[in-house]
Automatic annotation (TrEMBL):
Subunit note: Homodimer.
Enzyme Commission number, as recorded: 6.1.1.21
GO terms of molecular function: ATP binding; histidine-tRNA ligase activity
Pfam families named among the record's database cross-references: HGTP_anticodon, tRNA-synt_His
Residues holding L-histidine: 80-82, 111, 125, 129, 254, 258-259
Annotated organism of origin: Kosmotoga arenicorallina S304
Descriptive protein name: Histidine--tRNA ligase
Keywords tagged on the record: Aminoacyl-tRNA synthetase, ATP-binding, Cytoplasm, Ligase, Nucleotide-binding, Protein biosynthesis
Gene Ontology biological-process entries: histidyl-tRNA aminoacylation
Lineage: Bacteria, Thermotogati, Thermotogota, Thermotogae, Kosmotogales
Domain Aminoacyl-transfer RNA synthetases class-II family profile: 1-330
Cited SUPFAM superfamilies: Class II aaRS ABD-related (SSF52954), Class II aaRS and biotin synthetases (SSF55681)
Family, similarity comment: Belongs to the class-II aminoacyl-tRNA synthetase family.
Length: 419
């Protein structure tokens, strides 16, 4: 048997309800916040991610699904969405459409990571990006959006952590200070830390293995330039003024290179080691980096699988989904024409209808009607055809009515309102 690839999932039936629950909340909250959907390709030129996510990051060094296509181009399955959004912004001239441009996306991302609970090789993100504003209110708004998305999903087991990673002006001095601090400790650190010392020294701060050493490292907050410091203070004021609880985590540095100033994450303790539900921040240099004008931007992405894990751990169950309101059950070969005609009439009234095209007895037809969540069954047998009637059965109560075929659609419409 051919099996699915390690770190991927089939999503179906009961599990699908959770996805619809999350996707519906996403559509609802993005609409309330006036974010517009963008869909970019799931593969891009490898160069895009190397340049934006950063050559020295784990994502680019170890986790990308990269291959050569038949034309000899290096292609990569997207490991994240922000780089693609920045590219689409530049390539399609969004800069001319006025600012800010507020976009969201939902879709699969690919990272070659060691699979474990909450960590997959194909996972799904909902991401939002606001492009065009350098103001801390834009950072605040995407954070508020994230909090409201979680609220809509009824997730209250989640905590916001914020930090700043400085900018190209102040960060180099901070990195020097970190290198000095780590210089005489590097021999005793883990292999990842050793590798990152030269290429990405800030990542040493969020190493799980060498947490103890990082505890006494210099803080970025003493190295910030005035602009970054003011930006961070303003964001905090906005969060406090709007009653959003947060904690400053000076070790929060994010794993992608494009961040400037604000960085934030929301973590749910119940998730264990992969407890980050979402992460994001400001990336003022990225659009220019991928070939556009200088356009400040901020956004975040959340892992849908992780959101679903939190829902399950909190015991939140999405309601049973109705696949069709009405099940039409033709009991004879010659009842099908009428069955499809009745179905058409109901669909014209915007009512979802399942026509049973299987060859089986009434008991089994009724069983299936319940399974798909139908509220009403329409039974068409010999007597019904002869008299131009139809039997309407309310599944919940078992009540039955014989209704004239011509009035069937109106009758059902009214019954559905009552149910
Ligand atoms: P990220 O922190 O790499 O950020 O990923 C965002 C979220 O995707 C994580 O918080 C996590 O929930 C989920 N995630 C990441 N990797 C996996 C995985 N292997 N399996 C399951 N879930 C995963 C970004 O991707 C940035 N593009 C976010 C952003 C948008 N920053 C600004 N705008």
């Amino acid at each position: 048997m051919i099996k699915r690839i390690k770190g991927t999932q089939d999503i179906y039936f009961e599990e699908m309800k959770y996805w619809h629950y999350v996707e519906n909340a996403i559509r609802e909250v993005t609409r309330l916040y006036a974010f517009q959907e963008v869909r970019t390709p799931i593969f891009e030129a490898t160069e895009l991610f190397k340049r934006s996510v950063g050559e020295s990051t784990d994502v680019v060094q170890k986790e990308m699904y990269t291959f050569e296509d038949k034309g000899g181009r290096s292609i990569t399955l997207r490991p994240e969405g922000t780089a693609s959004v920045a590219r689409a912004f530049v390539e399609n001239g969004f800069v001319n459409l006025g600012a800010p441009i507020k976009l969201y996306y939902v879709g699969p991302m690919f990272r070659y990571e060691r699979p474990q609970a909450g960590r997959l090789r194909q996972f799904h993100q909902i991401g939002v990006e606001t492009l065009g504003s350098s103001h801390p209110t834009a950072d605040y708004e995407v954070i508020e959006f994230a909090m409201n998305l979680l609220k809509k999903l009824k997730i209250d087991d989640a905590k916001l952590y914020i930090n700043t990673v400085g900018c190209t002006k102040c960060r180099p001095k901070y990195k020097e200070a970190l290198k000095d601090y780590y210089a005489d400790k590097i021999d005793g650190l883990c292999t990842d830390c050793k590798r990152r010392y030269n290429s990405n020294v800030m990542r040493l701060l969020d190493c799980k293995i060498d947490e103890g050493v990082a505890a006494n490292a210099p803080s970025i907050h003493t190295y910030l330039c005035d602009e970054c410091s003011n930006h961070f203070n303003e964001l905090q004021k906005l969060l406090s003024a709007n009653d959003i609880d947060y904690e400053i985590d000076p070790k929060l540095v994010r794993g992608l290179d494009y961040y400037t100033k604000t960085a934030f994450e929301i973590r749910a303790e119940s998730l264990g080691s992969q407890n980050q539900i979402l992460g994001g921040g400001r990336y003022d240099g990225l659009v220019e980096y991928v070939g556009g004008k200088s356009v400040p931007a901020v956004g975040f992405a959340a892992g849908i699988e992780r959101i679903i894990m939190v829902l399950k751990s909190m015991g939140i169950k999405p309601e049973t989904e109705e696949i069709a309101s009405i099940a039409v059950l033709p009991m004879l070969e010659n009842a099908f024409t009428l069955a499809f005609e009745y179905a058409r009439r109901l669909r014209r009234k915007n009512i979802s209808v399942f026509v049973d095209v299987m060859d089986r007895n009434l008991r089994n037809r009724m069983k299936h009607a319940s399974r798909i969540g139908a509220k009403i069954a329409l039974i068409i047998g010999e007597e019904e055809i002869e008299k131009g009637l139809v039997t309407v059965k309310i599944l919940e109560t078992g009540a039955q009515f014989k209704v004239d075929g011509d009035f069937m659609a109106n009758f059902i419409e009214e019954k559905l309102i009552e149910l």
